[in-house]
């Protein structure tokens, strides 16, 4: 009789361990933004270039081109190099709105149309839930550290060039 109780206890413990391990695995598979960790995407091998009146400005960029990547964006990112950014690529031009919830860094949000022309440059305040929108449909959004656009002479009407933008006409 005692042997049967130990056997039952062992089976119940094994089942509980399996349930706990399965739950831990699926919890660890949630997007980074859900568990307060920054999403870090691979840096694209091709630089993004902003063509301005004063010359060209080059940036290394991470490309956010899926819904999950665009939703997480730069959330929870504590720091970023001055020449680094994230390029958000949408399937087609659309009205977009961004917010800065869970984003501790102030950012420049550069909104560009299908042709790569900058339509608007807006500032994002850390942790703000205020909606940031260009007021017209765009296909691309480039996020850079706050003040980068002004320091680089990047303005409305300037052109963004990158292979992800170059293939957007298809």
Automatic annotation (TrEMBL):
Signal sequence span is 1-23
Q: Which UniProt keywords apply?
A: Signal
Which InterPro entries does this UniProt record tie to the protein?
Answer: DUF192, Saro_0823-like_sf
| Gene3D superfamilies (UniProt xref) | Protein of unknown function DUF192
Pfam families per record: DUF192
Q: Could you tell me the superkingdom of the organism this chain comes from?
A: Bacteria
Is Cell cycle given among the entry's keywords?
no
Q: What is this protein called?
A: Uncharacterized protein
Lineage here is: Bacteria, Pseudomonadati, Pseudomonadota, Alphaproteobacteria, Hyphomicrobiales
């Amino acid at each position: 009789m005692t042997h049967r109780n130990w056997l039952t206890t062992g089976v119940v413990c094994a089942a509980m361990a399996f349930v706990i391990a399965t739950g831990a695995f699926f919890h660890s598979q949630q997007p980074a933004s859900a568990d307060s960790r920054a999403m870090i995407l691979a840096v694209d091998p091709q630089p993004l270039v902003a063509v301005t009146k004063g010359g060209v400005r080059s940036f290394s960029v991470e490309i956010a081109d899926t819904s999950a990547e665009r939703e997480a964006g730069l959330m929870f990112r504590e720091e970023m190099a001055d020449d680094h950014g994230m390029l958000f690529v949408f399937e087609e031009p659309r009205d977009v709105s961004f917010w800065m919830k869970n984003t501790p860094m102030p950012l420049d949000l550069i909104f560009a149309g299908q042709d790569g022309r900058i339509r608007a440059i807006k500032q994002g305040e850390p942790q703000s839930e205020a909606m940031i929108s260009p007021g017209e449909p765009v296909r691309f959004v480039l996020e850079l550290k706050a003040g980068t656009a002004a320091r680089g002479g990047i303005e409305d009407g300037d052109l963004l060039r990158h292979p992800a933008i170059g293939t957007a006409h298809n």
